[in-house]
Amino acid sequence: NWLAKTVAVDHRTPETPTSSQSTSPGHTGIPQFLWIDGVGGYRICTGEEWVVGQAVPGNQVDLTILGDLSRRALALRRSGRDYFLQPWQDVRINQHPIDRPALLQDGAEVTIGNRVQMSFRLPNPWSSSAILKLLSNHRWQPSVDGIILLADSIVMGPMEGSHIVCPFWNKELVIYRDGHKLFCRSAAELQVNQQTRSGEFELHVG
Q1: SS3 sequence, the chain?
Q2: pTM of this structure
Q3: Of the four, 20, 40, 124, 142, which is 20 to 30 A from 158 by CA?
Q4: Out of 1-15, 27-41, 80-94, which region has the weakest mean confidence (pLDDT)?
């Protein structure tokens, strides 16, 4: 029961949603948020393309940031395991200005305008899912610690290759996607809604 009461998946937002969140991934049946005790909260985004912009009322984009950036600053697109960035305002990747679609490598640092900075990670060689985190003193809207661009699976655990590093855990837990459903897999015995589970099982919202 090493994972008892540590992970929650939810459709609810931590604060009042903006109109741009009406198109968020909850309609697929996959939860929008993943909360991990002692680690943080992550927003789960499905699809293959996401527009990033400023968190202002009425801005119909996929990912919004409270910061000094355009209403539509850039787009991210996944093609297989590759991710591409399309800039629509001043954008730098690892301090190199770009003015056309560019491939994002694991560990890339993206600067939007003069101040907003975020990191792009593809930490696990067996998964095409990516992680976005803000490096500058700005916040995602809704407020979370990071964004999961979910392709196939999310690896959580104590190892560096995890999408979400959980330093106090002693085993990995994998959440993977099958169509519009999520499943959980771990070698550990888990407590799920006060019931002992092991192996693979479907992960339901709440």
Answers
A1: CCCCCCEEEECCCCCCCCHHHHHCHHHHCCCCEEEECCCEEEEEECCCEEEEEECCCCCCCCEEEECCCCCCCEEEEEECCEEEEEECCCEEECCEEECCCEEECCCEEEEECCCEEEEEECCCCCCCCEEEEECCCCEEECCCCEEEECCCEEEEECCCCCCEECCCCCCCEEEEEECCEEEEEEEEEEEECCEEEEEEEEECCC
A2: 0.86
A3: 142
A4: 1-15
